[in-house]
Amino acid sequence: MINMNKNKRLLKYLLWIVGLIVVFAFCFIPTHYYVEGVGSAENTNQFVKVNSQRDQHKGHFMLTTVGIQGPVTGLQLLLSKTQPFTEIISRDELMGDDDTEAYDQIQKYYMESSINFAIEAAYQKAHQEYHTQYLGVYVMSILDNSAFKKDLAIGDTITAIDQHQFKSANKFVKYVQGLKVNQKVTISYEHNGQRKTATRKLIKLPKSRYAGLGITLTDHSKIVTKVPVKIDAGEIGGPSAGLMFTLQIYNQLTKQNLTGGRKISGTGTMDPDGIVGPIGGIDKKVLIASQEGAKVFFAPDDPVTKAILKVEPHYQNNYAIAKAAAKKIGTKMKIVPVKNLDDALDYLAKH
């Protein structure tokens, strides 16, 4: 005779065990998702030295960041829904095909480029001397079938090929395109501050008749100035601090007090000609700037063209999103649209 009560108890225990496993997985096992939320508002003065000095004026500029948490658990995903302006993004959306180390290297490069552009824009506006020093080509990605796959890493800088040095990535590419598939070349490169060389064969590039190393590359340079400037952004990556670094540098170069004793925050990329570009997560940056007491927030006012609206009918630019975020949180912080460096400087001069 079958003991039905015993079987029921066994089934009950099994269900409890399965339930506990599910709860454990939900609470403690990471998913493939990340949470983008509010980051920090940092005083730019702590990162910037002009002529070996930090800004001594009352008030300060603040750069703003978003926070990336992850990979997160199911419980963390659920809790993120209770926080304002949070977004859930997949690993592919955040990093693409890169691993964490490669992603961090790319963000580091974007910050380095942002700093270069900020210095150039500020020195140009202040009529101070500077020049560009070309360092080589920066490795942005590497094909799996590249013969240099085991030598190079994302973030390395190739300084020469077959002892030839170039003044731009385009000239480097043209030289390599003149070579043959399977031809051996020797590259000189820097990896984590160490100088190295490697000799390997060129491959046939995908969808092309040309030979190549099998890498995606871009110019790697730095701005050299007569009045010394140093910016150390620490662990902060990405290009979005460009505008605020430019304002900080210009403020010190011209010995002005553009802040007027206030906390001035904002975001946006900067190019050498002073054009401010859009960034991501501006609603989160508005929130943290307001919480940290900023009186003004500069928001990129990137143009909303017919071409953009044709592809994305409900597109809103950074300024519109920032205004909506400010209204939602009820802040008194002034949201100021800027298309270029002059827009920000003109506002500060008049207010």
From TrEMBL:
It comes from the Bacteria. Pfam families: Lon_C, PDZ_2. It catalyses: Hydrolysis of proteins in presence of ATP. The keyword Membrane applies. Its EC number is 3.4.21.53. InterPro entries: Lon_proteolytic, Lon_Prtase, PDZ, PDZ_sf, Ribosomal_Su5_D2-typ_SF, Ribsml_uS5_D2-typ_fold_subgr. Keywords: Hydrolase, Membrane, Protease, Serine protease, Transmembrane, Transmembrane helix. The active site is at 240, 285. Residues 232-351 form the Lon proteolytic domain. SUPFAM superfamilies: PDZ domain-like, Ribosomal protein S5 domain 2-like. The keyword Methyltransferase does not apply. The chain crosses the membrane at residues 12-35. PANTHER family: ATP DEPENDENT LON PROTEASE FAMILY MEMBER. Belongs to the peptidase S16 family. This is endopeptidase La. It comes from Latilactobacillus curvatus.
